[in-house]
Amino acid sequence: RKEVEQDPGPFNVPEGATVAFNCTYSNSASQSFFWYRQDCRKEPKLLMSVYSSGNEDGRFTAQLNRASQYISLLIRDSKLSDSATYLCVVNTGGFKTIFGAGTRLFVKA
Amino acid sequence: SAVISQKPSRDICQRGTSLTIQCQVDSQVTMMFWYRQQPGQSLTLIATANQGSEATYESGFVIDKFPISRPNLTFSTLTVSNMSPEDSSIYLCSVPTRMDTQYFGPGTRLTVL
Fold first, then answer.
1. What span, in angstroms and rounded, lies between the C-alpha atoms of A48 and B12?
2. Which of A39, A42, A43 to mutate to test the interface with B (most CBs of B within 10 A)?
3. How far, in Å, CA of B22 to CA of A84, rounded?
């Protein structure tokens, strides 16, 4: 079983749609959680951190469920510019960071 | 935020040769990381480069294949030695932030023929 698992997609959605990505992690001692965004042929960049209390940044909402070891990312009112691969990232302590394989999103006009 | 540059941005190499990738950061950092991202895959940590000591390699990666240098707090190199087509990948360096996140360099896209 992979340490961090994501649905690879791709998700093909029209502009304005709401899309949700899920991620599960296997190490119950994991300490911090993030979503990164990776555009085609570019490096990953931090999108947002994920907290148990939920974290919202504009159209993006991230949620963590420690009991279920589950992380989610919700994108509302999708834009063409949201097309990218979204990486679920888990830090298990210190700088030990595990990256999920990513979920690809295509937003169509 | 840190500004990170990598050289070369891409290269095409013959099998059996070696390539050295450079990573430059605009500020002093204690730790630098080297990752590999194979086609269609996520990032896998190769090693942590520490200034003043030997790099720490992850399981499945060895110094003979991926020697690393860290001569100062702003610079590191990763060499991919005796390359084979299986080494075709994107190689990225990164530096940690204070919040357990990382800034990544733009990556080096390597194709081995």
1. 35
2. A43
3. 27
A39: how many CB neighbours lie within 10 A of its CB? 12
A61-107 tens-digit pLDDT: 999 999 999 999 999 999 999 999 999 999 988 778 899 999 999 99
CA torsion A6-B94-A107-A16 (nearest 10°) is: 90
CA atoms within 13 A on the CB side of A69: 14
> How far, in Å, CA of B42 to CA of A44, rounded?
10
Tell me the torsion sign for CA atoms A93, A99, A100, A102: positive
Residue B41's Cα: distance from chain center in Å?
Answer: 16
CB contact under 8 A, A32 and B100: yes
Burial class (CB within 10 angstroms; exposed 0-12, middle 13-18, buried 19+) of A28: exposed
Are A95 and B109 within 8 A, CB to CB? Answer: no
